[in-house]
């Protein structure tokens, strides 16, 4: 419980109506969660405008309302606060309500199209091994040390985020590593948060359904670096064309890492096999369990963060070299007959191309590559034919199937993907709508030593069809099929 006036300490109000010394029990931006004593914040969303629900919040006995536009009638007994930007105000109020937890941690945010989950997971494991109490906020799960807290978003909303950070502070965490999505930046989920550092991994074609254009997507990512304070570091992948743009106006101190260019943090791939990566990092040779050139970037970024946070470089490298990747990220099992089944979350053209290039690099010429891929419904449709084409270009056999069709017709998504299959590739491509059947087909087609890639869903344990989440785990189904088919 907090006084409204204390919650408003960092918010510049346009006007206030009613007492500010009222007790607020919690903050909600969804009228359906309002009850007596709750402060309701009206936020403009994608589908609806929270201002339309002020009346509902009032009827549910909200103690106060924060909004950009005041309703025509102000009910007596309820305090109304008008602000210029209620999304930003929500972030600042949530931070104040929970006692500004982000200022009590070394909080590092990672943004980029790919590599966020892997990077924050590596950092969480690294700092745990270094002996710290550490928080993790990621797409797969949130964590306080080893305690798992399920995640609903890559970056939680401002209220949940501050609540989670406060829990971490209470549990004695000194560090937290979190993913910062471009959606979160546009929706100001991290407004009012103090970061000790920010990392940019890369940016490629994704989420254009939400951002509208690539330029706007870049702007969303860049806005994260614009908000970093002078005390923070901004660590950027210099091999990405947009890397330098990210830190153009940042107040934070800019640092760079790269494999191709000579930068402050640099690495070189000596060898890349199914057993892992052999690297030279800042002049030190290491062998690590992570597979694929892209993981050299993730490892180097994590190493850079550790050094910038004051850790001993050698110690950090030694620990990093012993770590496995995150669940569903190049996660593999080998069957009795030596078929390698790889489950990977790659659901963007770039990520799929990366995984397949990696497989091509590490396979021997006799191993066939069978790729199973689908695309999500109600998300960027332009990537569907592109992903089918990438799968065909880099595999011997391709099975197009369903991912999470959500509210779209699964067959319509497959039809979009098929448009990317070139006539020469028709023979190697099959469409199997049912994902379980598709995995079975991949196993049937595989001969000893072949490689199956199951792309798109990684760690997910469900398949979302017409609003219903059905239990589905790629790795589990794959294992079952290997056994069932005696492979
Ligand atoms: C497209 C999108 O990002 N939507 C997010 C957004 O919801 P919205 O803007 O659609 O909300 P809305 O339905 O238009 O409602 C507007 C406002 O009216 C309020 N309202 C609405 C109805 C009502 O009866 N009463 C009421 O008060 C709502 O609470 C909201 O404040 O704000 C909500 C609260 O923060 C989010 O939960 C919601 O995430 C949806 C569920 C989602 O799926 N988001 C995904 C796309 C997302 O954010 N993904 C990124 C990762 C992307 C990636 O890298 O892969 C993430 O960070 O997770
Ligand atoms: N640094 C990287 N560069 C390019 N591709 C990468 C990189 N790291 C991981 N990938 C690929 O992207 C996939 C997703 O990785 P990861 O989950 O770490 O990214 P993410 O940014 O968290 O994506 P999402 O928000 O969609 O979960 C991996 O399985 C891998 O195929």
TrEMBL record:
Q: What is its EC number?
A: 6.3.2.13
**PTM note:** Carboxylation is probably crucial for Mg(2+) binding and, consequently, for the gamma-phosphate positioning of ATP.
- Where do the Mur ligase N-terminal catalytic domain residues begin and end? 24-98
Q: Name one GO biological process term.
A: cell division
Q: Which residues bind ATP?
A: 112-118
| EC category name | ligase
Among the Pfam families in the record, one is: Mur_ligase
Task: Write down the chemical reaction(s) this protein catalyses.
Answer: UDP-N-acetyl-alpha-D-muramoyl-L-alanyl-D-glutamate + meso-2,6-diaminopimelate + ATP = UDP-N-acetyl-alpha-D-muramoyl-L-alanyl-gamma-D-glutamyl-meso-2,6-diaminopimelate + ADP + phosphate + H(+)
Entry keyword annotation includes Cell wall biogenesis/degradation: yes
Q: Where does UDP-N-acetyl-alpha-D-muramoyl-L-alanyl-D-glutamate bind?
A: 31, 154-155, 181, 187, 189
- Molecular function GO terms recorded: ATP binding; magnesium ion binding; UDP-N-acetylmuramoylalanyl-D-glutamate-2,6-diaminopimelate ligase activity
Q: Which UniProt keywords apply?
A: ATP-binding, Cell cycle, Cell division, Cell shape, Cell wall biogenesis/degradation, Cytoplasm, Ligase, Magnesium, Nucleotide-binding, Peptidoglycan synthesis
Function, as annotated: Catalyzes the addition of meso-diaminopimelic acid to the nucleotide precursor UDP-N-acetylmuramoyl-L-alanyl-D-glutamate (UMAG) in the biosynthesis of bacterial cell-wall peptidoglycan.
Name used for this protein in its record: UDP-N-acetylmuramoyl-L-alanyl-D-glutamate--2,6-diaminopimelate ligase
């Amino acid at each position: 419980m907090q006084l409204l006036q204390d919650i408003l300490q960092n918010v510049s109000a346009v006007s206030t109506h009613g007492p500010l010394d009222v007790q607020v029990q919690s903050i909600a931006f969804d009228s359906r969660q309002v009850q007596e004593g709750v402060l309701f914040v009206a936020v403009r969303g994608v589908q609806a405008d929270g201002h339309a629900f002020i009346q509902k919040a009032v009827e549910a006995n909200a103690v106060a309302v924060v909004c950009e536009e005041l309703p025509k009638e102000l009910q007596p007994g309820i305090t109304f606060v008008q602000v210029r930007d209620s999304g930003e105000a929500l972030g600042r109020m949530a931070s104040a309500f929970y006692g500004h937890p982000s200022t009590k941690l070394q909080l590092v945010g990672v943004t980029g199209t790919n590599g966020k989950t892997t990077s924050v997971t590596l950092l969480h494991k690294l700092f745990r091994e270094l002996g710290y109490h550490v928080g993790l906020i990621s797409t797969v799960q949130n964590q306080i040390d080893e305690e798992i807290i399920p995640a609903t978003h890559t970056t939680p909303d401002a209220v949940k985020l501050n609540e989670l950070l406060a829990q971490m502070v209470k549990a004695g965490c000194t560090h937290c590593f979190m993913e910062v999505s471009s959606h979160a930046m546009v929706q100001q989920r991290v407004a009012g948060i103090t970061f000790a550092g920010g990392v940019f991994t890369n940016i490629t074609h994704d989420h254009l359904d939400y951002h509208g254009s690539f330029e706007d997507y870049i702007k969303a990512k860049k806005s994260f670096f614009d908000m970093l304070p002078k005390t923070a570091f901004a660590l950027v992948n210099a091999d990405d064309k947009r890397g330098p743009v990210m830190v153009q106006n940042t107040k934070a101190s800019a640092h760079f890492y790269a494999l191709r260019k000579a930068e402050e943090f640099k690495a070189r791939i000596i060898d890349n096999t199914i057993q892992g990566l052999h690297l030279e990092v800042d002049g030190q040779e290491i062998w690590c369990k992570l597979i694929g050139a892209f993981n050299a970037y993730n490892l180097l970024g994590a190493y850079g963060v550790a050094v910038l946070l004051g850790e001993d470089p050698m110690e950090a490298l030694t620990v990093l070299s012993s770590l496995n990747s995150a669940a569903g990220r190049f996660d593999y099992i080998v069957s009795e007959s030596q078929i390698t089944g790889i489950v990977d979350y790659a659901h963007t053209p770039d990520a799929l191309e990366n995984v397949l290039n990696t497989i091509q690099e590490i396979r021997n010429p006799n191993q066939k590559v069978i790729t199973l891929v689908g695309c999500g419904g109600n998300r960027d449709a332009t990537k569907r034919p592109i992903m089918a084409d990438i799968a065909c270009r880099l595999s011997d056999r391709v099975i197009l199937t369903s991912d999470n069709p959500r509210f779209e017709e699964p067959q319509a998504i497959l039809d979009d993907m098929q448009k990317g299959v070139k006539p020469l590739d028709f023979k190697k491509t099959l469409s199997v709508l049912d994902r379980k059947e598709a995995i079975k087909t991949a196993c049937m087609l595989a001969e000893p030593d072949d490689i199956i890639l199951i792309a798109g869903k990684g760690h997910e344990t469900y398949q979302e069809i017409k609003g219903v989440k059905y239990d589905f785990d790629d790795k589990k189904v794959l294992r079952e099929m290997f056994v069932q088919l005696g492979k």
